Amino acid sequence: MLKTTITVLAAVALLALPTWTVATQPEQESQESWQRFNAALADYQRYCQSCHGKEGRGDGSVAKWLKVPPPDLTQLSERHDGMFPAERAMRVVDGREEVKAHGRREMPIWGEVLAAGDEPGAAPASERITGLVDVLRWLDDKPAPPAG
């Protein structure tokens, strides 16, 4: 029974892999992909979650105090004709593109923060920003919770 439960949990975990992780990769590369993703997820939790929420739905702990509500990151593809806007997400996160509808920029320019190297031993800012975009893609791919 325990072995079956572990097998089922492992299968579910494999289904939750980010789209860029492929089951046929060598084990080391897969571990490195998970390490990069987990580091990016930690960046999301540190820099994004307070506004966008744990699941990216715009319901973070400080969202109610913002003049402009943070967008629901789980709907990015839906708002862009079914395609995840990776390049645009990269430009918004690194500060090259301001979201015009928001007026004054509410979201900090994380590219500057990450480039400042505030954490010893952290990956270069460009890798961290790419990782954050991978987290956004992962949040966007998650199914919506059942209405209830």
Characterize the structure shown.
With 148 residues, this protein is mainly alpha-helical. The protein has six helices and no strands.
In round numbers, the mean pLDDT is: 74
* Dominant shape: globular
Look at the helices and sheets and give the structural class. Answer: mainly alpha
Question: In DSSP terms, counting alpha (H) and pi (I) runs of 4 or more, how many helices?
Answer: 6
* CA-atom Rg in angstroms: 17 Å
Distance between the first and last residues' Cα: 32 Å
Descriptive labels:
mainly alpha; 148 residues; single chain; globular
Brief characterization of the structure:
This protein has helices at residues 2-15, 27-47, 49-52, 86-94, 110-115, 125-141. With 148 residues, it is mostly helical.
How is this fold's topology laid out?
Layout: H1 2-15, H2 27-47, H3 49-52, H4 86-94, H5 110-115, H6 125-141
Helix pairs in contact: 2-6, 4-6
